[in-house]
Each structure stands twice: as structure tokens, then as C-alpha cells.
Amino acid sequence: MRLSFSGLSSLFLAFLTSTSLLGAPLAGPNVGGRWAGTLRLPSGNNLTFIINIKDNGGRRTATLDVPSQGAQSVPIDQVELRADSLLMTSTQIKASYAGRLTGDGQQIDGRWQQNGKKLPLVLQRATSTTTSGPKRPQEPAPPFPYREEQVRFTSKDPGVQLAGTLTVPAGTGPFPAVVLLSGSGAQDRDESVFGHHPFRVIADYLTRRGIAVLRFDDRGVGQSGGNSTTATAADYAKDAQGALAFLRSRPGLNPRQLGLMGHSEGGTAAITAASQAQGGPAFLVLLATPGVPGIDVLSRQAMDLARLKTQDPKVLASTEQRQRNMLTIVQQTQDNVRAQQQIIKVLTPAVALPPDMAEQIHKAAEAQAVMVTSPAFRHMLADNPQKTLPTVKCPVLALNGSKDLQVAASVNLPAIEKALKGAGNRDVTTQELPGLNHLFQTAKTGAQSEYSQIEETFSPIALQSIGDWLVQRTTKR
């Protein structure tokens, strides 16, 4: 499902196009080098900033790294030092920093300003420990005991060319194979998030167990063509069908043992692809996939996330009512402009607020209104797995984490099992994995703020559950 980040955090993921850097003439103390600091967000989450200041032929330039978000070399256009005062501005992420250098030249005390917020940020000259990125111990490293190939194929949607990576076990085969389908939003082939590459980890694990894996950039992302801004799960289902057709044409792969594995909304696309009369998968793996109507999934998501912050029944009731009101507007109002106006009104408190706070809330409401009226969100909201799941006749494995706050296991897993078995599917396995969040990491609370802090990319228990089930289904045929 879609992740909801604070506006301040998400800006680092939205403006990473490289441009030439400008600088200011050198003057004053030496501020060149690497600086590190921790920005504490209003949500309570922390972001480590690494700022690299360089002297390029008499002019200062700088870039910003945010390791936990995978942001690297974000251009800082202006670097100006007046006496002991430093001013830096990045037009790409609409942010600025103003600080004062301490007498020993080892620290800068200042404030980071972005998206209407001013937050304290102390920068210190960086050491090797502060400049390193987040630890990701499961990240695969070469040499690999399998073949890896960069491939291109065509979606069943005419004119959409997709690019990805195919990993094939060593030997002659023929091997079973699985296509990985990412969750909502524009995702690359590794489903990269917060420095994690879960699809890369899954592909490495399964290929070592004798199963070929195809993972690919979503349409409009990376090296794939198409438009990500208008794409829905129905479009991604066509991409999945194109991936299966591509694998059937590959020598060394067993055309009767080709399946789909979808995470979250990717599972919705997998179900749609599996419901087709021809060219469907031999098996499905559904990871944190909705099993109840979209409005129920999204309403429960809002409540579970709200419970992390409060147990006040009045606040929770208000949150649920506001969420359902917003979703009902989307369902009943097809005109986006009218819908967005109504949604902003629903999300804006009917109380007097300080001007700066009122402006922040209004901007956040505007962004939310645009997001929930997008084609992808409208399709998600209208989706009803109880109508599509009964058409799936192939073997199905559905996994969910007990700490998943975006697609609740206790609601969705039973619904998936009931819909499949009720329609006569005799090979259905559902499993709730204790302690795992929506990304299948071992988590404390399941909060989104933990995703970047957890070193584990994908639970080894979940990997083994998937691998064992796939090996059993593909070796008995």
C-alpha cells in the first residue's frame, strides 16, 4: 500500500535530478569538507544529513546526502560564508540552512528550513563513522553462484517497453521462475526504499535455491518506458502478463512453472493477471496483499497508524470518520477539482490556528487531496478482492506480518483464504508471521518511522517460508 511520509521527508525523494552546481566566492574561515548532523522531524523520526562542501577553483559548492532515504548528491546551489555565518540554499528541494561556525571550526549551530518548518540542525565535521550509510547486512555481494542478465521485454499494454534483471541458477535447467511485482508508487526493480533493496535480496535468495527471478523497473521508472503518473494496478497486471510471456520465450526456463509474486498493491496486480483466461501464472505468492475492499483496507490503515500516537477513543473515532469521509468523497466525486476542494475542507480543522500552522496544514491537505484523487489511488479504492480472488485457480501462498499497520494481517489473510477456498481452490496457504511489518522486517511497533532504522531488509523466516513453498510446488510436477 501507499506509504504516507511527512512533507519534509518526502521532498528528499522527489527532487533528485542532477544539475550543475553554483557557488559563492571564497572568504572567511575554512568550511570545506564533510559535515554531519541529525535532523529531528516533528514525527519523531531522525534523519542523518551529510553535507559535502568543496572548493572548486575559488568557488564553493556543496551537495547533500541523506543515507537512510537513499538520497545522494542533492545539489546545494548557494554556499555563502560571511565572517562566521554560513548560509546554504538548495532550490531543488526548496530548502535552506543558516548557521554559525564555532570558534574551533569543528561545529556549525543552525536551523534547517523547508516546507514551512524551521528545525534545529547542528553540523559537525564528519568522521568515518558518521559518513557511512545505514547498515544493510543482507545486501547481496558478488561473486554470485548464478547468472545475471539485464533484459528488456514488452508489456501486454501496447507500446510499453520494460527493463529489468533476470537471475538464473547455474546449470542447464529447465528452471522454474517467478516475476516480482512491487507495491504502490513508482518503484525500481529492487523496490528500493530507505536504503533497502528487498527485491534484490529476494531474488538472490530464491535464485540460490534453484528458482529464476525476473524483477523490473515499473513503467516510467529507471530504464522502463510508459507513464507512472497515470498507471494503476490494472496496468501493472498487463506488465506482469508481458513478463510471463517473456519468460516463456526464454530457453532454460520451464514454461509450465512460471509464477508471480506481488508485494502489497503488486499482489493486487498479480491477482488480476492470474484471473485472465490465458497466459496466467502457474502459482501466486501474495505478500501483504489486500483481501478486503479498498475502502476497508485504507480505513483500517488510518486507525492502526493513529493508535501509535493515541488511545483516546474520541480522537480515534474522529480519525476514522475523517478518513471515511475523505474516501467517500473520492468514490462519489469523479471531478478531481471538486473532489480536492471537498477533501481539503474535510482535512482542515475548523478551529483558529496560528498563521504558520494553518498554512502548513493547508499545504498538507492539498498534497493529500491530490494524492487520493490520482488514478492509482482511485483504482485501489475501487478494488474488491472478494470479486477477483474467486477467479484464481492456481496454487496461492499469502503471507502477512503481525505488525503490518498498512494491510492488517488479521483482516486480510482470512478474507483471502475464504474467497479462494470458497471458489474451490484446493491449494491455498496463508500464514501470519509474528513480529514482521509491512516490509517484512522484524519490527518493534510496525510504524513507518522504523523502516529506515531497521538493519534487516527482509526477514529470513519470511524468505524461507517463500522458498520452501515454491520448491515444494515446483519440484512435484
Description of the structure:
Residues 202-439 form the Serine aminopeptidase S33 domain. Residues 126-145 are annotated as: Disordered. Residues 1-23 form the signal peptide. One of its GO terms (molecular function) is hydrolase activity. The chain is of the alpha/beta class and 477 residues long. The chain has 3 domains: 7-131, Quinohemoprotein amine dehydrogenase alpha subunit, domain 2 (Lipocalin, Beta Barrel), CATH 2.40.128; 146-293 and 383-475, Rossmann fold, CATH 3.40.50.1820; 295-378, no CATH class. The protein is built from 13 helices and 17 strands. The protein has a 9-stranded antiparallel beta sheet, with helices on one face. A hairpin with a 5-residue loop joins strand 1 and strand 2 (46-56). Helix 6 runs antiparallel to helix 7 (313-332) and helix 7 packs antiparallel against helix 8 (336-347). The protein is globular and about 75 Å long. Residues 2-27 have low confidence and may be disordered.
